[in-house]
Amino acid sequence: MNMKKWIPAALSTALVATALAACTDGDSADSDTERVLRIASTTLGGDDGSWFRQQFTEIFEYAHKNIKLEFVPVVDESIMYGPVKEGEERPDPLVKLKEVMQGPNPPDVVMVDLPQMKELISENLLKPLDPLIAKDKFDTSGILPSVMEGLSSVSGDGKLYALAPLFSSSAIVYNKKIFMDAGVEFPSDEMTWDQLFDLARRVSGGEGENQKWGFNFQSQGYSDIFESSFMYTAPLGLEYFSEDKKSLAVDSEQWEAVWTKLIQLSKDKVMPSLDPNDPSSQMRFRGNGQNPFSYDDFMSGRLAMTIMNYGQLSQIDNANKNAANLTGYTPIEYDVAALPTHPENPGVAAGLTLYGIMGINSKAGNEADAWRFLKFINGEDWARAKSNNNYQLVSHKKYIKQPANNLNMEAFFKNKPLTEGQTEMYWIYQQRNPNLIQAYTLGRQELMSAIRGEKSVKEALAAWKTQGDQLLSQPVNSGGSGGAAIAVPAG
After folding, report:
1. Signal peptide position in this chain (predicted)?
2. What is the pLDDT of residues 147-199, one digit of tens each?
């Protein structure tokens, strides 16, 4: 997943200055001793670590002039993201990271994502942080419980092996006027998905230009339900593949129930049409020059509820501020509620993604500075300096700023992050077997055949499995796309 798109280009000098009060972190005694701190990640943003430096280390480097940072390249990005030649396999970045971590000059700090973190813990490649936290009395009480619980749940034993200073989160955004006009109560935190769908059904109605839909996973343009419904399916633990990745696991009653429910919501006009060839879908976004946001159901007032990332809210705020200059736009009074969860997995949602997850290599040569660095970027001063980020939120609750419109900001950190359901998408994304990608994407056309009534849901899922299993039984590079990219839903 490309995290760069969520991140501002650089830190300002003013932000650097704000963190200097706690810059030495108690190491003044050896401040003249020069040493090296080595950092590795599969997403450093170039061999020189330029992106990583801008995002995480500039303040630390300014405050610790005696510590030289070295960024350890793990994979060549041109190989990782470029085309794969016939007969070659794309390198697995996690395998490469493990090799580097156990090499002759190992990195001290590693940045990972949750699926990578779980695998490294299972192989004893990360050092437990609890003893270091206890020894230094490092205060983690201000860090959001959802962040701490998400990190500690990965290990399976409740131990903490990494910290994360930032997170990105999504929530249910709702148009208050649509609910008030329908005489229906607003969405609330701690809803189940069925409760949200019930609310959506109650605020849906109208015809033609006056049509109001209750909910959609996305609001802009035609919504690819196959990808966007990941928010709904992932916390259920629905598997695409068997454990050995040699066959599909989609011909189940649970998959059938999910597809049936989503298709019925669209048939009942609770959700917009899921078929891009449906004339109503094409007319919806055609626009007539009277509405600058005709491409967006929510911004056009046609949709009561949708899912938005925290960073997307600025579009609504900017439009509302400039409504006088936007012909055809009506300001939207809105608020947010936490993403619904499933009774089978209460309090866990796919919309919260932790960023900057970093731990200490078990074979670190400079463990002291590695821990000093982790404390620094997970401390209050760093959080305060980074709190103006419009795309991500800081993990310290104290420095999550309340918008002027008094939104329910707790909605963005009410739930815990998904730790299990992302693992399979990680496998697909890393393309260990290019045939996985093709087998996965076959589901899109079969779901569309069910939406159009060409097959029953059960028949469509069976066809997906049959075709997918045939692909997975072929040699990896046999007639395949050689690693064509797919869109992986982000939290």
Report:
1. 1-21
2. 999 999 988 888 999 999 999 999 999 999 999 999 999 999 999 999 999 99
Q: What percent of the chain has pLDDT over 70?
A: 80
- Give the position of tokens 């609890």: 130
**HEC string of 428-481?**
HHHCCCHHHHHHHHHHHHHHHHHHCCCCCHHHHHHHHHHHHHHHHCCCCCCCCC
Q: Averaging pLDDT over each range in 74-88, 365-379, 384-398, which range is the top one?
A: 365-379
Structural domains present in the chain: 3-165+356-399 (3.40.190.10), 169-348 (3.40.190.10)
Residues contacting residue 474 through CB under 8 Å, at least 6 positions apart: 435, 480
Please give the structure tokens belonging to residue 378.
Answer: 């997970």
Banded pLDDT at 221 (limits 50, 70, 90): low
Q: What is the DSSP letter of 390?
A: S
Task: Report pLDDT for 30.
Answer: 54
Cα–Cα distance, 297 to 45 (Å, whole number): 35
Q: What is the DSSP string of 137-178?
A: T---TTB-HHHHHHHHHSSSSS----B-SEEEEEEEEEEHHH
Cα gap 347→358, rounded to integer Å: 24
Residue 271's contacts (CB-CB under 8 Å, 6 or more residues apart) are 200, 213, 214, 215, 216, 262, 265
Tokens (6 digits) for 108: 């001290």
